[in-house]
Write a structure and sequence with these properties.
Layout lengths: L1 E2 L25 E2 L5 E4 L9 H23 L10 H7 L4 H11 L18 H19 L5 H12 L3 E5 L5 H7 L8 E3 L1 H6 L9 H10 L6 E5 L2 H9 L4 E5 L5 H6 L4 E3 L9 H6 L4
Parallel strand pairs: 3-4, 3-6, 4-5, 6-7, 7-8
Antiparallel strand pairs: 1-2
Helix pairs in contact: 1-4, 2-3, 3-4
């Protein structure tokens, strides 16, 4: 099966991809050249990234106001766009807290994963944010990106193995809520990252663990991510193709961080019926 789309290659990566003649900068790839797809969850499969961003803003705006009162410093609000995508998106909670606070010249002790939301530690702050996220989730529910779901289903029908790889501790529950549990052969989530002591994205370890669970070599697998840290992880892990999903007007940055393909939605890569029939599954 042949997938289409506008691609940007890095030097000699993916030399076997086929080029189409329909548009000057359009190339395609045969899904049968790969054995697996490893996809992020929030912002790729489900429309939950905005809930995470809103929870982070609530947490940090409250905290920064408190710091201003303590120190007399000027309050500067958390930016839902830049602060979220640059410091938090795709990372384990405590690492995101660390990186955002560092950007504001602040720091906190690491603490323990069991720290309650009242503890002023990296883990405590992260756990407090998690409570805000759960409240948002209960109020709004979960919606999927249909283009991604269709892409994954076509890949599975073509014989590829699928894994969802996410730093979220809610991954299993969210996937179950939207009825996609049976779509995936493997899952690596925040609980696995904690248990296995894996470094978070942009380190590639979570994706490499997903590939190991699928028994697939990274160069024969596709990574799908919307976060800058996520595409960096896919690139660093030596995966055969890294698809960046541009949900936040950051197409150039996704390419710079390692995406081979950048699309606004996975629906852009779905094959036309004529392409499916002219390029049979191998």
């Amino acid at each position: 099966m042949f997938f289409r789309g506008r691609f940007r290659f890095h030097n000699s990566m993916n030399p076997d991809f086929s080029r189409t003649s329909r548009a000057q900068d359009t190339v395609g790839f045969h899904i049968a050249d790969y054995r697996a797809v490893l996809s992020d969850l929030d912002g790729v499969i489900t429309q939950t990234a905005r809930l995470h961003a809103a929870a982070w803003k609530r947490l940090f705006d409250d905290y920064l106001k408190e710091i201003g009162v303590r120190t007399g410093s000027t309050f500067r609000a958390f930016d839902l766009d830049d602060d979220y995508r640059l410091h938090l998106d795709g990372k384990p909670r405590h690492e995101g807290v660390r990186d955002f606070l560092k950007s504001r010249g602040l720091s906190l002790p690491l603490g323990s994963p069991t720290d309650g939301p009242d503890r002023e530690t990296l883990y405590g702050m992260g756990n407090k944010k998690d409570g805000y996220f759960e409240a948002e989730l209960r109020e709004t529910g979960v919606t999927v990106y249909q283009g991604t779901v269709e892409f994954l289903r076509i890949a599975k029908q073509a014989g590829l193995k699928l894994a969802v790889v996410s730093s979220s501790h809610h991954c299993a529950g969210i996937v179950a809520t939207v009825g996609l549990t049976s779509l995936f052969e493997a899952r690596v989530d925040g609980h696995d990252i904690d248990r296995l002591h894996l470094p978070g994205k942009p380190a590639p370890d979570a994706f490499l663990e997903g590939a190991r669970r699928l028994a697939v070599e990274p160069q024969r697998a596709i990574v799908i991510e919307d976060a800058l840290a996520g595409v960096r992880a896919g690139h660093a892990g030596g995966f055969g193709l890294v698809i960046g999903v541009n949900r936040r007007n950051q197409a150039a940055a996704l390419r710079e961080h390692g995406a081979d393909v950048v699309v606004a939605d996975l629906a852009e890569l779905l094959p036309h019926p004529s392409e499916s029939s002219s390029h049979p599954q191998r």
